[in-house]
Amino acid sequence: MIKQLFKDIKISVLMPVYNGAQYLKCAIESILNQTLTDLEFIIINDGSTDDSVNIIKSYTDPRIRLVHNETNLGLIASLNKGIEQAKGEYIARMDCDDISLPERLSKQAAFLDRHPEVGICGTWFRSIGDESGLVCRFPTDPDLFRSELLFDSVIGHPSVMFRRKLFQDGNLYYDPAFRHAEDFELWSRAVDHCEVCSLPEMLVLYRYHSSQVSQQRADEQKATAGKVRLAQIRRLGIEPSEDELLLHQSFGSLTHQDNPSFFVGAGAWLNKLKKANDSQKIYPEPQFSYVLCERWFRLCLRSIIQGQWTWRIFSPPKAVVNAWTGLSYTFKFTYQHLFDYVSKMVYQCKRSHY
To answer: Can you tell me the distance from the alpha carbon of 248 to that of 256, in angstroms, rounded to the nearest whole number?
Structure first.
């Protein structure tokens, strides 16, 4: 009877919980109220000591499967455990402090049904909580996503949906060696097995608050993400120096030094990446050249907002300029995207003065 019950489940929603009582009800109800009802909701209690378990048990919906870890195993082990136990055709990630809008699961499942070449699908999201109102748009083009991975993880982890069989058969589990950047490392491996992209719709409300890992373990997360970037750079046949690694990091974090020599070095680094990819052909063109141009543009734009070295924006790296394959593609920024980006940078600059 149980086998029959779970035989044709469309989606397994996977949500680890560790002391998440504060926002847990909103997260649970956002899944139970989805327009797509053919789902199982795997909630993994990772040794919570607050009221989380009582909150979960207060719901009588039979689609909820409460799984207990005997001790606190951490996010990576809990996610891998959930992937192993999932029965659905697709697995959807959910965080216990976020909110999925009602049509999230149905729209992602329909997209994966139509696109068998796509193995992982995320969505755009809007922030709530401490930094509310920010809109996060992620690449909808799989080749653009692959190219962006050289610099950063450009998909909303709590919004992803992926094919269960692809992950289980391909051994695509989270690597415990990359704690706090486990998603970034997983995507860097997954692109060798499938296409990855995001739907151009805001279907998740992502909550910013002070108890998040990204807030509490920022230094550790930065160091681990650096390991992922280094592995990507080495695929291009480059063994970077410490200075080059710092330059590369600046393109991911949009940080820079207040002198022209920094931008000269940064431009030289982009040239080096472009030439290496021309030789190794790791990243697809013209998307890779677009990403280099975009990262350069964003770094220079931030410098303009802060009033430093604005002249450099008119002098992009030579190799990148020579690789442009058409202005209509390379300058793919719409007025709306540019406005959103400038607004976000101004907002961040204002916050830095508080």
So the answer is: 11
Convert the pLDDT of each residue in 291-300 to its tens digit.
998 888 887 7
What does the alpha-carbon distance between residue 197 and residue 155 come to, in Å, rounded to a whole number? 8
Q: Which fold has domain 2-214?
A: Spore Coat Polysaccharide Biosynthesis Protein SpsA; Chain A (3.90.550)
Cα–chain center distance at 348: 20
Torsion sign, CA atoms 70, 72, 73, 76: positive
Could you tell me whether strands 64-68 and 99-100 are parallel, antiparallel, or unpaired per DSSP bridges? Answer: unpaired
The domain limits of the chain are: 2-214, 244-352
How far is it, in rounded angstroms, from Cα 342 to Cα 219?
26
Structure tokens at 288: 């890779």
Please provide residue 99's backbone torsions phi and psi, each rounded to the nearest 5 degrees. -130, 125
Residues in the chain with pLDDT values less than 70: 1-7, 210-216, 254-259, 302-354
pLDDT in tens, 317-351: 555 555 544 434 444 443 444 445 444 443 343 33
159 DSSP 8-state letter: G
Structure tokens at 181: 């950047």
The confidence score (pLDDT) of residue 335 equals: 40
